[in-house]
Input
Amino acid sequence: MEGKIWASTDLVCWALSLWLLFWATLLVFFFLVSFFYPIIFFYIFFIIENYI
Output
């Protein structure tokens, strides 16, 4: 019986850590996008302005 409880808590811990890792990755991704998007946008705008 104790083994089953341990297995279930282990699974819960694993799922929780995976869930937190997923959200952390998502947050980092959104942060990088919000940080680099204006730079890339202005860079592309600058190139278009030069060609026209």
Summary: Residues 2-51 form the longest helix (50 residues).
